Amino acid sequence: MHAVRCIDVRKIYKQGDEDVIGLNGVSIEVEEGGFVCLRSPSGGGKTTLLNVMGGLDRPDSGEIWIAGKRIDNLSKAPLARMRLHRIGFVFQAYNLIPVLTARENVEFVMQVQGVSVVDRKKRSLEILSEVGLEGLEDRRPAKMSGGQQQRVAVARAIASNPAIVLADEPTANLDSNTARHLMELFVELNQHRGTTFVIATHDQMVMGYARRLIRMLDGKLVEDIDQEAV
Amino acid sequence: MGTASIVLNLAWRNLWRNYRRTVIMLMAVVVGVWAMIFMSAMMRGMVDGMLVDSIRSLPGHIQIHNPNFRDDPTVNNLFPSPNENLIAVLEQEDVVAWSSRVRVPAVVMSERNSRGITLVGIDPVAEVSVSSVADDMTEGQFLSGTEDTGLILGRRLAERLETEVGKRVVVLTQDPSNEIVDRGFRVIGVYEAQVASTEEIYAFAGRSTLQMLLGIGGQVSEIAVLGADYRDTEALHHRINTAVGNRLEVLPWYELNRYLSSMLGMMDGFVLIWIVVIFLALSFGLVNTLVMSVFERVREIGLMMALGMKPAVILGQIIAESLMLLGMGLLIGNVFAWATIQQLREGIDLSAVSEGLEMMGAGSVLTPSLQTSDVVMATVVVLVLGFLASLLPAVRASRYHPVDAITKV
Amino acid sequence: MSITFRLAWRNIWRQPRRTWLTVGALVFSNILLIFLISVQLGTYLMMIDNTLAPLTGHLQVQYEGYKDDQRIHQSVPAVRGLAADIRERLSLETIAARGAAFALTSSEDRTYGVQIIGVEPEFEPRISTLPGLIREGRFLDDINAPEIVIGAVLARNLRVQLGDELTILGSARDGSFAATVVRVVGIFESGVVELDRSFAEMPLGFFQDTFVMEGAGHTVVINAQDLFSVSTLQQQVQALLPDMEGLVVHDWNDLQPGLRQAIQADLVGAWFMYGVLVILVAFSVLNTQLMSVLERTREFGITMSLGLTSGRLGWLIMLETTMIGLLGLGLGVSLGGLVVYWFTVNGFAYPGLELAAQFNLPDRIYPNLNSISLLVGPCVVFLASLIAAVYPAARLHFLQPVQAMKAA
């Protein structure tokens, strides 16, 4: 089964009076356990594609399937449920709730998912240690470095054991060393948990970790390279 | 462009950057100002109503008495009818009307009941312009002249006496030598007063008829004078006082009715308190809005200072923003209040609680009365206090250090 | 404490100044409302008391129709026996019988029409404040003595002093001529001109002889413990009345319809003022919460991308508002309670109030602080805050995660 499957997805934005083509007939399939990088210049459509895949944005036409379930025609509430349980997001920066500690950020999502108090205490600690944040559980985001914050975001994203984690420029605000460590964490989670990753980036270093590299331009896929085969 | 116009321009544009916040705050100011003006007009209207009713129900603006009359309002304390000197004053232009009366305590007896009253002998022709008795007639006729032998009763008194128009009653009173004198009168009319308790107190007869009964010749108990405006009786009071000399006591309404004049004084206090209270309730929101708007613009303010804008200009800009907001609120609020008051200018009928209003000395129709002084007071209070309230956020904004402000996220 | 609670609590303290200003607005209006409502309640109770205490009392047993017509023959037979009987059966001491008649009262050189009231000297002081307002001389003490107490204004008008004699002339119950001479033993001054000018009291026994009442009177006045137990007492008294005699029990509202109406008239104005205050506070809360929602748009976008529904975020805003509202409620009630309590002990006056005595208003105001006057205002303010937060909370419903995350 595919973790995510897009069939002829189109999306047009209005920007002022002009129509901007976001996605122009994109079809793509990502295998379960895949580790994919999307690259494109700014405005090439990679963020739009991620948003559409994650059910944050609705395509004008085409179909989106996540773990065998079609989501492009879902209404708001089931879509939110889908994101809650099957999809994890990691954004550029500032994507934690600033007033909650690292652990509370992770637990908050679990609470919404309906995980019991005892379970979520235990599991949030496990996950935070899995992403290498042992000892920092009770810090608030403002007291953590950018890299540490991103690890909390990753812990939060994988808390629900999602079918797929979508990461939009996760390293954009990090120095290269921290970025490398974050990518190593992604790879590790991909290998040990079998979590599927789709990462939008224009960082060469990040692309280096990808097993599959997809290049987009003007809302179209222009290149799809299997880097392992290379 | 001068600095002032730049400041005003910036303030105006900044005000509309977060239009939702501004609109909400504006709505609050409008509701507040509307309530200030409307409520003041209602309070003024109530006191005005009380005054007008009270002045019209008998006293007039100025009254002339024998100096002992107010202490002992009987037939023993009379004075001769006005001499030429006084008449000359009373015929001047600023006197709308005047009327001389005889007032004595009396007892009215019907076949069934008797009641103590104040019997007033009037000249119906003169009285019509001074007091409202003739307007309030509900049954029968008004007196036709000073020699009319009929009697006018209040509705409630007629009910108590179980009598009606056309029936006879006996009036007992005392003459100056303390002898009881009595006379039969035919009830020729019944009146209803704004304040129903007056209906039980006053009965009216022809002045000459009463003077004859009492054997007092042309003497009278009081002269009531109606000037142009009850708010301005000083000049008239002075002139009459000079004309009559110190043989007689000349008093304006506000000394005759202390309760009303103190109500009038208290209303000034109430209106001010009400305006200030409303402003205080508004001020929390106002300061909050300004603090937020400064907080959001910290970087921008830092940038402007880095570009060489003086702190005083920043200060002025924030205060200008606040005053513009309040100014708009005042304008719209006043317009709404004026419109509401226009709608109600026929008066609000409160007859459902008339007996209660009577306890407070008010009639049952309340007409709001918009006073320029209240509008001015509300405007001044709002702008002055608004200026003070915006000082805090404005001073804070002007004290930012440019570099700190720019680097602040 | 669940994470949602912690989240809400910490969120309101992100901008402590703003939260305190909002709480300040709530506390301000709460204190004001507690004060005004307590003052209102206190004034009303005193106004009722001052109006009823001199003569009316809480309940009166009368012959049917007497209230409106006040004819001398609409009488209660054996009125002292009836009063004694009710006194005994209810084990209540605040009950007294009266008779009333209009009469011409003459001194040596003056005559006035006066309402003469026959009272039981032993029981009248328990139901009326007039015996306590004697300024000169004493109150009546013998039920059959030819004595009278009159108001100060009447005494001045009649030009009489203590010990002087007055001639009373009126019609007796049987239609005959009633005439007698009484001695002035006391002069009362209530401050209410109407009372001081046209009322006089004489002993009931002597009154009955003078007006040929044959043991009858006109009212039995009954005072309850307090205003709130009047209606129960009214039913009890009604049940005790002998049948077939056409007797009725009127409560103070029947006897003084103006009183309740005066309160109602005053309430209209008061509700308007309270309404305006509450609306202004609601605007303040609305503004704060809307700002708080708008500046967190980006954060809300991210939480929505994690799978939180807008409804859930809406509840978060309502929870935050509840916390702010409860802070305002708690602080407002405790501070307002303290401030107003001080006034309930010490009272306050304002200039001009002394003239209000004419209208049975007190010259010094003591607010009445009880659970109702303490809590009604703050609870309404609290509810209004919640209602005001509905708009900002509902706005979240239209939030699109992608747009939200682009927000600054």
In short:
The complex is a heterotrimer of chains A (230), B (409) and C (408). With 230 residues, chain A is α/β, with parallel strands linked by helices.
Tell me the overall shape of chain A. Answer: globular
Overall shape of chain B: elongated
Radius of gyration of chain A (Å):
17 Å
Q: Which architecture of chain A per CATH?
A: 3-Layer(aba) Sandwich
Structure in words:
The complex is a heterotrimer of chains A (230), B (409) and C (408). Chain A has 230 residues and is α/β, with parallel strands linked by helices. Chain A has one domain (35-54, 76-226): P-loop containing nucleotide triphosphate hydrolases (Rossmann fold). Chain A has helices at residues 46-53, 76-86, 102-113, 117-130, 146-158, 176-193, 204-209; strands at 2-15, 18-31, 35-39, 61-66, 69-70, 87-90, 164-168, 196-201, 212-217, 220-226. In chain A, the strands form 2 sheets. Chain A has a 6-stranded mixed sheet, with helices on both faces. Chain A has a 4-stranded antiparallel sheet with strand order 2-1-4-5, covered by helices on one side. In chain A, strand 1 (2-15) and strand 2 (18-31) form a beta hairpin. In chain A, helix 3 (102-113) packs parallel to helix 5, helix 4 packs across helix 5 (146-158) and helix 5 (146-158) runs parallel beside helix 6. The mean pLDDT of chain A is 89. With 409 residues, chain B is α+β, with helices and mostly antiparallel strands. Chain B is 54% helix and 18% strand. Chain B has helices at 3-15, 19-57, 84-90, 124-130, 155-161, 197-201, 207-214, 234-244, 253-256, 258-296, 298-306, 311-343, 354-359, 372-398, 402-407; strands at residues 62-65, 95-109, 114-122, 137-140, 150-154, 168-174, 180-191, 202-206, 222-227, 249-252, 348-349, 365-366. In chain B, helix 3 runs antiparallel to helix 8 (234-244) and helix 12 packs antiparallel against helix 14. The two termini of chain B are 32 Å apart. Chain C has 408 residues and is α+β, with helices and mostly antiparallel strands. Chain C contains 15 helices and 10 strands. Chain C has helices at 3-12, 16-56, 66-69, 79-90, 124-127, 152-158, 193-198, 204-210, 230-240, 252-255, 257-295, 297-305, 310-346, 371-395, 401-406, and strands at 59-63, 95-106, 111-119, 134-137, 147-151, 165-171, 177-188, 199-203, 219-222, 247-251. A 6-stranded mixed barrel of chain C has the order 2-3-8-5-7-6. In chain C, a hairpin with a 4-residue loop joins strand 2 (95-106) and strand 3 (111-119). Chain C is elongated, with a radius of gyration of 31 Å. The two termini of chain C are 32 Å apart. The mean pLDDT of chain C is 89.
